[in-house]
Structure formats: C-alpha cells, structure tokens
Task: structure prediction
Amino acid sequence: MKASRVLPSIFVLLAFFGSASIADGADDAATMLDPSTSSDSIFGTAWGMTLALDGSGFYNDVLQAVLDNAETEKNYKPLPYRRAKVEFFLREHSCLYPTEVGFLIQSGEIDNPEDYIQTVPLIWVESHLFSRYELGPLASFDDLKGARIAYPNGSALPSVLDRYGPSFVPTTSETAKARMLIAGRVDHMSGSLPDNLFVFRAMGRKLPPYNPDLALARVGVSVVCHATPENQAFVAAFDESVAGLYGSGAMQALFEAAGVDLRFLPHP
Result:
C-alpha cells in the first residue's frame, strides 16, 4: 500500500477550526457571555451546514447521539466560533466541540494542558486539495506552481504551501470555495472530509478529484473539557457511550445513513 504524504497536523486543525485566538475576543468577553447558559455546557464551534447553529448537521448529529446514549445532563449549545471559544475559556466547568488538546496547545490557546481532558475522538477529519474536475487529482505539491488555491480566510494554508509557488484566494465559507472551484476561478481548493461530501452533495455536484495519498493531514476531533471532577466523570461516561454505540453498530449506521465512509469513524 502506498504511503500517504501528510503535512503537519497543525495545518488541518487551523484550516478546519480556524486560527482565531481567544485573545481576539477577550476585550468584549463580558458582553458575549450569556448569563442564561449553563456554566458546564458543551459549546459547539458552528461553521456551516455540517455544524449549524440550529443544531443540525453531521457533527451535531454524531455528538447528540453520544449524549443521548450517555444520558448526561450536560447541555450542548452550538455558537459562532469566537463566542464558543470565549464561553469555553471563561467557564471553568465547560467543554468545547469539536477540537483536540494538541491543537489548543499548538495554536497557543492553552499552555497548561494538564488542566484539560478530552474524550475519545468521534470523527477522523482529513484535509486535502481538491482540483477542478477537468484537471484530475493533484499528483504532487510541486505541480502547484502558478496555480490558484481557494482557502479559508485565516487558515495556515499559505504558510504551509507557499514554497510550492501557488497564489492564494481567501474565502469565508466552504460553499464559497466550492463555487469558485466549480466556476473555474481557482484551480484547487483546500477542504476537509467528510465535510465536503455534504457541501458538494447540497450543490448537486460530485466530489471534485483529490489525491488520497497527498493528504495535508488526518486528525481525530473530540470534546475537550476543563479538568474538573465532574468533567472527568462526564468524559468517562461519554467514552463508555461511544464504545456502546460502536459495539451495537449504531454509530456505523449513523455514518452510513449520512453517506459518510466508515474510514472516518474512529475505533473507540
């Protein structure tokens, strides 16, 4: 089996979750905090159709299935990205989804990892460069010279791929990137799987070509919590719930019903 080429995982995390720092919202944190929100909530970083503010979307569905099975009293609340981060860092009994402790360290948002705990990963996320349909999969990063790449505004993509000689076009959403690629305004777009399965399906288009052996990164996303006795009990119950859903086949059925390949389902 051909080995995949994978760039440092910090890229996919920055591209997937964004690179905004908690410091960006610190000045107005007090006005953003919602006094009606439970102090031990799980805050979701909403970004679009796969994790929507109204609770719909694949990432929301996966988390909610685990929470329902665990019969936890923790409240789950998707919020806009920056507000979710502010709420999480200022509420010492709360959790954040989807993220990963390693990302929070590498992005400079925490320097005390011992104060945080995380669940088992729920979804494997892969980051790739997708190409215009007529171009076919990218054979090598060396072929990027002179190409135009659409990417999420604020991600680390330019610093990672600049040495290969492309130009970069910032966008504000997955849908905007997809439309630019379909219209031929760019040659490639960065994107994550399984997210882009839903984006292009909603647009009535097949997934653009990509090279699975040229992955930018692959990482599992989890629920990260402040390390309190209550959250330690929650994480244990959560992990047990994931194992139960996996063992019964319910988690596999959820992925398959959403049209998501089981390679994106971590083994608990």
Remarks:
- The longest helix spans residues 229-248.
